[in-house]
Amino acid sequence: MIEIERPREIAAIDMGSNSFHMVVARVVGHSLQIVSRHKQRVHLAEGLNDNMDLDQAAIQRGLSCLTMFAERLQGFAPENVRIAATYTLRQARNAHVFLKRAERVLPYPIEIIPGTEEARLIYLGVAHTQHEPGRKLVVDIGGGSTELIIGEGFDPQLQYSKHMGCVSYNQHFFPNGKISAKAITKAQMAALQKMESIASKYRKMGWDTAIGSSGTIKAIREVVIAQGHADGVITRERLDEVVKQVSACKQSSELNLPGLTEDRKPVFAAGVAILSAVFSALKIDTMIFSDGALREGLLYEMEDRFRQSDIRSRTATAMAAQYNVDIDQANRVKNTAEHLYSQIADPSASHTPELASLLSWGALLHEVGLSISYPGFHRHSAYLLRHSTMPGFNLEQQTVLATLVRFQRKPLKLDEMPELTIYNRKHIYPMIRALRLAVALHGQRSDEPLPALTLSADKEKWQLTLPDGWQGNNRLLAADLAKERDYWQKTGWELSISPEEECE
């Protein structure tokens, strides 16, 4: 009997400010076949208080939704699931509390992604599902932020994320569901001010087709269709008519527009005001709608990574070039760090391949801070890796990169390590040690290859074995290793270098 291999199933979850979405697909050849979609209104952004803390009610709504999603994901391997959290968890000071509780109901890492990364993934989702020729402008109005991207093919060329969303604007301009023409005008003006700094760039670059995605624009499109425009195209005139109709209402509950669902009513006025401002700022004439969005972008990027195409490698290489990194030295440190880490990492642990990749990228970029100044360059490097736009990396991955380069040299002030939610500190410490040893071993910046190095580890005790006599012929390097050994000792780690007498 011939056994037919079952297609791989992958899943993506978009934890938005208004709704959580999950989509499951099968990888068939080099394409994706969507097999199920799930959506739950969570209104996460409504739980943000003035101190930017999520209240318990919002946290519980989110956890309840994730518990339901977990039922569908039973049996999925971790590498086949990606979960991205967006604006609200980017802003929430107590996001770590939510993430810790989420781990108990959904055993997969939740990535909090930067706004620009959200924009990139939205574009990827639209580009794969909406095959329009030429250059595309993609607009996605979410609960807490609006993403605007211009790209061609599958490559975004200009992307921004603005802090204006249908939930946040609804709370600010339409409290308690009150609607008025004056409130709509104020919301439009606020959105126009947000667009002011980028509008000219977008108009100058131009586009052939404007495409809207996600719930807000979909809701407006449904209203346009119900008003007799079967093509579903949102034009300036049709949008103005919707604005006029919304302005005539005094309460969101009175928005009895054909095509408008009950669950969309509370945030509809805010969404209409934002889209109207975007149309005005960018001088958009017509916009079509795409079913593709962030979750589809996550799926397609996962499918890309199955084919060993990782945008993060391109990002790291481009960043090294941008900051004029000495690429020969960076590669020397990178290769040695990889070699050392491979000798002590647990190959059977699920996190090892991902952490090994992060160590490689961190080593490649460990000297980006030299572009600012030599004194304290490890801190400058950490700042750049934490705060730069790095396509493909989520916020926690950038934090890990920043942590690695921050602790590559000088005393180990581990109390300054940031909190992590996806990764565990005990997994990061070996990466720090491997990078520090690689940096020390290449401190002379020589092209001469290192001798054979053997590394073994027993928890906090590491043993580095070098050839007999080698340190005697490399006294400056031996002194650097001895100094490194002292740094380790002060933080409770132990580094032994043999032959021992050569280190003295």
Automatic annotation (TrEMBL):
KW Hydrolase (keyword) present: yes
Q: Which UniProt keywords apply?
A: Cell membrane, Hydrolase, Membrane
**EC numbers, comma separated:** 3.6.1.11
Q: Where in the cell is it found?
A: Cell membrane
Task: Identify its membrane topology class.
Answer: Peripheral membrane protein
GO MF: exopolyphosphatase activity
The protein's required cofactors: Mg(2+)
Looking at the record, the residues that make up the Ppx/GppA phosphatase C-terminal domain are: 311-484
| Protein family membership | Belongs to the GppA/Ppx family.
Q: Which NCBIfam families match?
A: exo_poly_only
Official protein name in the record: Exopolyphosphatase
Starting at the broadest rank, the lineage of the source organism is: Bacteria, Pseudomonadati, Pseudomonadota, Gammaproteobacteria, Vibrionales
